[in-house]
Design brief:
nine-stranded mixed β-sheet
């Protein structure tokens, strides 16, 4: 029987930050759906997200306990331009006192599968129990300047040219250079070729690498 995503990633009660690219929002809502069967869940952000349509959206403290009692899972944030939500007025620690699990999207990648980080990024909330770094296998073989958010930083850290393809080798160099803590989940691993490239990536890293398809609902640990 397929392990649920929260089991695979060993998500614990408290604050979990989702960073990188390639499926943060999908991962957050997959985890929220699973964890809501085990406790109460608040989804939120330290940057910007679009409000979901499948759970209550709250912009203030009032009503949080009642909404969690009724729905088990809510989204919390402050109104932002373009109909988005930004970080809530309440601290992440306060939210963690109200729900068993807080899932925070803590990075922005403009919908691209890979994110290279500037020194002030990502915006991981204080007190995060764990961090999950996501990347999308759809980046492999595509030019760096097309597949990477902040591709200039990617090139600086890896030595790759903007026209070079994203590979297991240069993605591993990026991850090692950035030194961001947390488990690595490579989403969009939906073909044999993508899985082979992720295996090459895992061979070059000294951390567990998880791979799968959030869209397809399948995943595994490669190391």
């Amino acid at each position: 029987m397929l392990m649920e995503l929260w089991e695979l990633l060993e998500v614990r009660p408290g604050i979990t930050a989702l960073i990188g690219g390639g499926g943060k929002t999908s991962a957050m809502y997959t985890l929220a759906r699973e964890l809501a069967r085990r406790g109460t869940v608040i989804c939120t952000t330290t940057t910007h997200i679009l409000p979901p349509e499948h759970m209550p959206v709250l912009t203030g403290e009032d009503g949080i306990p009642a909404a969690l009692a009724s729905h088990r899972c809510v989204c919390m944030g402050s109104p932002a331009p373009e109909g988005k939500l930004t970080a809530p007025a309440l601290s992440m620690e306060a939210l963690a006192g109200m729900a068993d699990y807080v899932l925070a999207e803590a990075d922005g990648s403009r919908g691209l599968p890979v994110k290279a980080h500037l020194p002030h990024e990502p915006v991981i909330p204080p007190g995060a129990a764990q961090t999950v770094l996501l990347a999308g296998a759809s980046a492999f073989g595509r030019p760096v300047r097309e597949a990477v958010h902040r591709w200039e930083q990617f090139c600086r850290l890896t030595g790759a040219s903007p026209a070079a393809p994203v590979t297991a080798e240069n993605l591993a160099r990026l991850l090692e250079a950035e030194g961001l803590e947390g488990k690595l989940f490579v989403n969009q691993t939906e073909t044999a070729g993508a899985l082979a490239e992720v295996r090459r990536l895992a061979e070059r890293l000294s951390r567990p690498v998880y791979a799968g398809s959030l869209k397809g609902g399948s995943w595994t640990c490669l190391w």
